[in-house]
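Project standup — Tuesday

K.O.: blocked on the structure for the chain from last sprint. Re-posting the sequence here as requested.
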Amino acid sequence: MVVMKRALLTGVAALAAFAAPVSLAARYAPPPARVDVQVIGFTDGQSQWHFTPTVIRASYGDTIHVRFSAEGAGHGFKLARKPEVDLTAYPGMPAETTFVADWVGGREFYCTFDCGPGHAQMSGMIVVARR
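H.V.: unblocked you, prediction finished:
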């Protein structure tokens, strides 16, 4: 009986020692943020067939708000493995969406609108870091 009590107390003490730092780390992690970004698709002038910016950075759990506009022709903005993020914009007619960065690593965004001969090279990356 004494051995069982001692084993139980040792187990409880070990659990408490492990749980305290984990609990403190979770308590002091920075809260998710809102990342606002203006993305433009170009097909005119010297800036033909590309997005700006080409890289968007966020942290896991952040809310990303994209305001997408097009210059020169219509463009699409689709995010890989996130089917609800699928926009089309025309010159003077921007589109917007908001979504949560619920992954860690990079996800490609790309143009879905056949905007001309450089269409296939129109892509960028959303890079999400651990919090």
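K.O.: great, moving the ticket to review. The domain at 34-129 is CATH 2.60.40.420 (Immunoglobulin-like). The beta strands are 34-42, 50-52, 55-59, 63-71, 75-79, 86-89, 95-100, 105-110, 123-129.
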